[in-house]
Amino acid sequence: MERYVRNMKTLSKEENDNLKNFKVCVVGCGGIGGYVIEMLGRIGIGNITAVDGDVFEESNLNRQILSSTDTIGFSKALEAKVRMEKVNPLIEVKALGKMLSEDNACSILSNHDVVVDALDSIPVRLLLQRSCKKLNIPMVYGAIAGWYAQVTTIFPGDDTLNKIYNVDKRTAKGIEKEMGNPSFIPALAASIEVSEVIKLLLGRGELLRKKMAFIDLLSTEYDIIPL
């Protein structure tokens, strides 16, 4: 199919065809999550669940690809679905305009092949990790702040986030608002997360499992940190 011809050579035809059979849940449809959904949809992941109970605000316009002046006040999850209907109508996007919680996490995440963490709340990230562990689903984590990004892939039972966030996990907050989020950093983290998703689904390459990619764009340093 002409749509996916530029996937070829990087992916085999069989691998490309298989992408339509996978289900990926993206939790958070803002800065990172919007780019993740964009890339997953364009490469041909067949089923994407977009989860976010928030709406777009003017302050999102500097970095969130799903936002525009026309979508201020609109559901982030629903706009992800609308966007993908225009970009790739061959795939199915399920929009869930709700926040992940203890009550709904397992029902939302079940029956997916991979879960992508595009959140900005440490307690909710840890809930996501616990829920994926319970459901035996791998997840890909990404976080950003200022010039910095970090990504890791977490298999059920790895509990990697417990090592990254060695803080009071009930009240801990990320530092995104303190350090800012320029336009380029969510796209960077999302690209690495999506590459991890594709490798995981296709069983190719080396995953960032039990190690974390830490990128410092200000100093142009790319480090792999054992976890």
From TrEMBL:
In its UniProt entry, what is this protein called?
Answer: Molybdopterin-synthase adenylyltransferase
Bilayer-spanning residue ranges: none
GO MF, one annotated term: tRNA threonylcarbamoyladenosine dehydratase
* PANTHER family assigned: TRNA THREONYLCARBAMOYLADENOSINE DEHYDRATASE
EC code(s) of this entry = 2.7.7.80
The alphabetized UniProt keywords are:
Nucleotidyltransferase, Transferase
THIF-type NAD/FAD binding fold domain boundaries: 4-224
Q: What InterPro entries does the entry give?
A: ThiF/MoeB/HesA, ThiF_NAD_FAD-bd, Ubiquitin-activating_enz
Q: Which Pfam families match?
A: ThiF
**The UniProt record lists the keyword Nucleotidyltransferase:** yes
Q: Which residues form a coiled coil?
A: none
A Gene Ontology biological process term: cyclic threonylcarbamoyladenosine biosynthetic process
